[in-house]
């Protein structure tokens, strides 16, 4: 804003500036951004053809709106990004509790100051960041918190009668006048508190207790909610739903590429080490969330947050980092065993159905990680689906690998063993290195070793070889021998 901006009411009047509502201000700035080809919601991925057009329409329509979606769908980030459609600064009467516009004094304080100072009434300019407030709806939120109440201490200190409007202590909503106010998780707000929002949404005014005042507010109200909340924790009362102009549904990323972009954007990856993660491995980590969203053991009405692959990737990288520090490895590189480091990040983010609870969070986390590996394996190697024996193409590729384990051989790996021992253990399996290089196009020895372990893990997920785990040591063995061992009677 220019230094010549008006600093008194008289200067403001002479500047020929007019009053503009917040909704008109946002509409004007949105139109300007669209014409300039600017990115409207920086950092938001995957919503270009769905959510963002609906948001644009809501702003152009001057609507109050609600974002409805499962957890981890960037609802709060979208709401906070709305400040980008406000002016850099806006004028208000200095000291006004309701940020009254110089040409629209709404509260008793502003009217009194103008009556006393006239054109000398001081004006201050507030930034867009100070024009946004949000509140998480919790059962203990009161009408006084949101709208306001009598302030007996103020009345006594200033020797005012309780009927004086200036004895009101305004709540967070009117104090956000001339801005954007958001309520997160709206259904958690008690119905009697929701009733207090009806007038604000429809008539754009508020009423406090028995005060004979009617204050018209100028603001945008936005809400977020999880559809699950409508039945499990609370409801949005029907009159309030009717007064919310637009309901916009959010969703999870529909493609693996979008999901990877979100995770790469949000995850803490920069650790001061040079770390190469090949495409198929990165795909596996991201596919864990997709596998969880398809799992019959996961409560899909609760959703699987986009935070899951973010935390999973961070844990995997930390496991690689830990191994490289311990082994003084100058070339840290991922291993399939590192995926087990993601289990704590996965198990804590899944709401399970009854059958899943019986299996246990850890087992379900292992299961969805396995499904992610299986999906990546199936997209890169010949199909191993069979009725009687492997299909001819798969047998030509994997036959010698599987036969190796049929001869009572095994491969023992861990996520902590030095790379030389890791590579040597994998190299003992006939044709494994050749298959990895052929189908995964690996070049350096670290990527080739990872590809070899990926093949073993993929064959295990297809139930062609067995795998046992004891104290972070993983053994790949013959499937039939392991099954027979497990049914042996006790001595």
Helix and strand topology:
Blueprint: H1 9-14, H2 22-36, H3 51-60, E1 65-68, H4 75-80, E2 89-93, H5 108-117, E3 123-127, E4 132-136, H6 143-146, E5 148-150, H7 152-157, E6 168-170, E7 180-184, H8 191-195, H9 198-202, E8 205-206, E9 215-216, E10 220-225, H10 229-232, H11 238-243, E11 246-249, H12 256-266, H13 279-294, H14 307-326, H15 343-347, H16 354-359, H17 361-378, H18 392-406, E12 411-414, H19 419-427, H20 432-440, H21 445-461, E13 465-470, E14 473-478, H22 479-486
Parallel strand pairs: 1-10, 1-11, 4-7, 7-10
Antiparallel strand pairs: 2-3, 5-6, 8-9, 12-14, 13-14
Helix pairs in contact: 12-13, 12-14, 13-14, 13-17, 17-21, 19-21, 20-21
Parts with pLDDT < 50 across at least 5 consecutive residues: none
Number of helices: 22
Terminal residue distance: 86 Å
Task: Give the overall form.
Answer: elongated
CATH architecture of the largest domain: 3-Layer(aba) Sandwich
The overall pLDDT, averaged over residues, is 90
| Total individual domains | 3
Widest sheet, order of strands? 4-7-10-1-11
User: Could you tell me the number of beta strands?
Assistant: 14
> Structural class per helix/strand content?
alpha/beta
Reading off the top of the CATH hierarchy, the class of the largest domain is best stated as Alpha Beta
Largest sheet: 5 strands, parallel
């Amino acid at each position: 804003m220019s230094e010549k901006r008006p600093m008194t009411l008289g200067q403001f009047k002479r500047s020929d500036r007019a009053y503009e509502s917040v909704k008109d201000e946002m509409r004007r700035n949105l139109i300007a951004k669209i014409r300039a080809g600017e990115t409207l919601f920086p950092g938001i991925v995957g919503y270009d053809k769905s959510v963002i057009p609906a948001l644009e329409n809501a702003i152009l329509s001057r609507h109050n709106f609600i974002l409805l979606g499962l957890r981890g769908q960037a609802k709060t980030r979208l709401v906070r990004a709305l400040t980008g459609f406000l002016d850099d600064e806006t004028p208000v009467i200095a000291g006004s509790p309701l940020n009254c516009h110089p040409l629209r004094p709404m509260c008793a304080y502003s009217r009194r100051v103008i009556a006393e100072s006239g054109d000398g009434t001081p004006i201050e300019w507030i930034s867009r960041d100070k024009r946004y407030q949000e509140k998480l709806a919790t059962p203990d939120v009161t009408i006084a918190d949101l709208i306001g109440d009598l302030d007996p201490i103020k009345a006594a200190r200033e020797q005012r009668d309780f009927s004086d409007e200036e004895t009101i202590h305004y709540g967070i909503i009117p104090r956000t006048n001339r801005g954007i106010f958001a309520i997160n998780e709206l259904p958690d707000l008690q119905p009697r508190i929701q009733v207090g929002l009806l007038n604000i949404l429809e008539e754009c005014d508020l009423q406090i207790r028995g005060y004979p005042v009617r204050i018209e507010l100028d603001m945008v109200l936005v809400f977020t909610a999880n559809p699950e909340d409508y039945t499990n924790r609370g409801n949005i009362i029907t009159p309030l739903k009717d007064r919310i102009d637009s309901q916009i549904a959010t969703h999870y990323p529909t493609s693996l590429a979008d999901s990877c972009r979100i995770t790469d954007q949000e995850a803490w990856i920069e650790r001061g080490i040079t770390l190469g993660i090949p495409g198929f491995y990165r795909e596996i980590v991201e596919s864990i969330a997709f596998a969880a969203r398809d799992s019959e053991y996961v409560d899909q009405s609760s959703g699987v947050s986009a935070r899951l692959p973010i935390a999973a990737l961070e844990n995997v990288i930390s496991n690689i980092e830990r191994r490289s520090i311990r082994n003084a490895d100058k070339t840290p590189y991922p291993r399939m065993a590192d995926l087990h480091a993601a289990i704590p990040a996965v198990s804590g983010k899944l709401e399970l159905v009854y059958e899943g609870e019986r299996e246990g969070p850890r087992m379900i986390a292992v299961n969805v990680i396995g499904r992610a590996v299986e999906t990546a394996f199936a997209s890169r190697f010949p199909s191993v689906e069979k009725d009687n024996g492997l299909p001819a193409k798969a047998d030509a590729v994997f036959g010698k690998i599987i036969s190796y384990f049929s001869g009572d051989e095994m491969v023992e790996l861990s996520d902590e063993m030095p790379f030389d021992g890791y590579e040597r253990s994998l190299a003992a399996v006939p044709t494994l290195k050749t298959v990895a290089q052929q189908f995964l196009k690996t070049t350096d020895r670290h990527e080739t070793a990872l590809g070899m372990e990926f093949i073993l893990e993929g064959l295990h997920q297809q139930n062609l070889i067995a795998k046992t785990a004891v104290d972070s040591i993983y053994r790949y063995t013959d499937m039939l021998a392991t099954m027979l061992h497990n049914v042996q009677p006790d001595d």
